[in-house]
Design brief:
single chain, 3-stranded antiparallel sheet, mainly beta, two-stranded antiparallel ribbon
């Protein structure tokens, strides 16, 4: 079997409902069934466009912090509800 390394910072991984998995360049449109896994390297708020909010009404997201820490602010759909702050950190080394 030939193993081909995938640069997760330049590619997205698509996990299809039927079990097929493949990597595509990050600039390609994902418009396919299943799920998409994308990794980002962020050192500052500018790296993750912290100056504006994103809305994902048709999707769910999993956010994982591999190194350092990150704060996420979740705004609920109904006006007047308070946003929720989520703080993610890495697990300490064993």
């Amino acid at each position: 079997m030939t193993v081909t390394p995938i640069d997760l910072l330049a590619s997205s991984i698509h996990l299809h409902h039927g079990g097929e998995i493949h990597a595509v360049r990050r600039t390609d449109d994902a418009g396919q069934d299943g799920w998409q896994l994308t990794a980002f390297h962020a050192k500052t708020g500018a790296d993750v466009h912290a100056d504006h909010w994103e809305i994902r009404p048709e999707a769910e997201e999993v956010v994982s912090c591999l190194i350092g820490k990150i704060r996420l602010y979740l705004r609920l759909e109904r006006p007047g509800q308070e946003e929720e702050e989520i703080r993610l950190t890495t697990a300490p080394a064993a």
